[in-house]
Amino acid sequence: MDELPSSDRIRSARYSREIAMVKTSKSPHGEKSALLVIDVQRGLFKKASPVYEAETLLENINSLMDRAHEKNVPVFYIQHANDSSLAEGTENWKLHPALQPTDTDVVIQKRQGSAFVDTSLGEGLASRGVGKLAITGLVSQGCVRATCLDALQLGYVVELVADAHSTYSKTAKRIIRKWNKKLDEQGAVLVKTTEVLFE
């Protein structure tokens, strides 16, 4: 096999270090893992600017869900409601049809940016001894950002799945890179879908 270019070697080494951090990191909430799928709802796929790499996003989230189910890791779907484009009970408010929650999955309703504000998420995680969160979904600069920051502040180990969150914008690629970098600097561990460790 040909040697990796220097930029790829650096990137690969960085992911290896970050995965090692996840393995050794401790949370006061417990050592079990959970998968969070944030706001992957039909209405967000109908915006004037399409969700960036939507097909890859959905494939990666489904891959993570399948692996989580295989290891009996809890999956929490976060479903946002507002008084306009995601009005509760409407077609736009429903989860994307590519996502099919099982009977063991948990659906959390929210009306704020962070999935922890005015919801039962914290209680649900605590009852399962969860201290590590793999975070995915929509949108990178909005509810994904807010949930990551609150999770870090609350003491969870946060894995931000870099290829499993997205946004709808003409500058989506730049936005995703920006928030991967910023959340990494705040303490989230950046991992790829294939590198998520469910324990």
Write a compact overview of the structure shown.
With about 200 residues, the protein is α/β, with parallel strands linked by helices.
Please characterize this protein's 3D structure:
This protein has 199 residues and is of the alpha/beta class. It has one domain: 3-Layer(aba) Sandwich (Rossmann fold). Helix content is 36%, strand content 20%. It has a 6-stranded parallel beta sheet with strand order 3-2-1-4-5-6, sandwiched between helices. The longest helix is centred in the N-terminal third of the chain and has 19 residues, at 6-24. It is globular and about 40 Å long. It starts with 5 loop residues before the first helix and ends in an 8-residue tail after the last strand. 36% of the residues are buried.
